[in-house]
Amino acid sequence: MLTDSSYFAFVMLEIALIIGEFSIQTVGFTMHSILDHWISRTQLLLDSYQHWTGQQLLPRDSSSEDQAQQLFSAPFVVVSHGTEDNPVLNYGNLVALNLWEMDVATLTKTPSRQTAEPVHRDERAELLRRTTENGFVDDYRGIRISSTGRRFLIEKATVWNLIDQQGNYAGQAATFDAWKFLDED
After folding, report:
1. Nearest-angstrom CA–CA distance, 95 and 39
2. Measuring CA to CA, which of 22, 43, 104, 168 is 20 to 30 A from 81?
3. According to the 3-state scheme, what is the secondary structure of the chain?
4. CATH of residue 154
5. Quick one: DSSP state of residue 24?
6. How many domains does the chain have?
7. Other beta carbons within 10 Å of 124
8. Using an 8 Å Cβ cutoff, are 78 and 71 in contact?
């Protein structure tokens, strides 16, 4: 069984393979650049969350690398998407990967709208509009669907805009720690 630390390293290798930067000759350099990217993504998530909510998603008293590992291993969902016209997921921590029943390769190719059933996509669009308008919402409740079709109800989710260091819009993210599977006895 993989520990959180070894799974984090495994995910970094998986990301390297996804973006085609893995080769025997460049393993050290590639892993360093992939880790830098993951750390940067984590800092964007944490900085933006604090900017909009005035709170910390997790303690910021350790190195950026440690924070990346802590967020990946956190006991709550963190997921984000980019700025594409049809936004694609670009981050999911271990709880998110397990909940949506995806690996990193699948997650990073999935349009975020596909995490909601077609009948719930208007509700999702309204949530994203409110978030864009207000910077964040902390009262979201809605139904989502995993890659295998398992439906689950999210409770008390916070959704926030991601902004880079120059203040430019960089996508949206969500976190929650309460959900229940539907249609299961």
Report:
1. 18
2. 22
3. CCCHHHHHHHHHHHHHHHCCCCCHHHHHHHHHHHHHHHHHHHHHHHHHHHHHHCCCCCCCCCCHHHHHHHHHHCCCEEEEECCCCCCEEEEECHHHHHHCCCCHHHHCCCEHHHHCCHHHHHHHHHHHHHHHHHCEEEEEEEEEECCCCCEEEEEEEEEEEEECCCCCEEEEEEEECEEEECCCC
4. 3.30.450.20
5. G
6. 1
7. 19
8. yes
The range of the structural domain enclosing residue 110 comes to 4-181
CA separation for the pair 155, 179 (Å, rounded): 6
User: What's this model's pTM, rounded to 2 decimal places?
Assistant: 0.82
Q: Check residue 118 and report its DSSP letter.
A: G
Q: Which two tokens stand for residue 110?
A: 């999935």
81: its two tokens: 């998407």
Give the contacts of 118 (CB within 8 A, at least 6 positions apart). Answer: none
- Compute CA 84 distance to the chain's CA centroid, rounded to the nearest angstrom: 15
Q: What is the pLDDT of residues 100-134, one digit of tens each?
A: 999 888 998 999 989 987 777 788 778 888 888 89
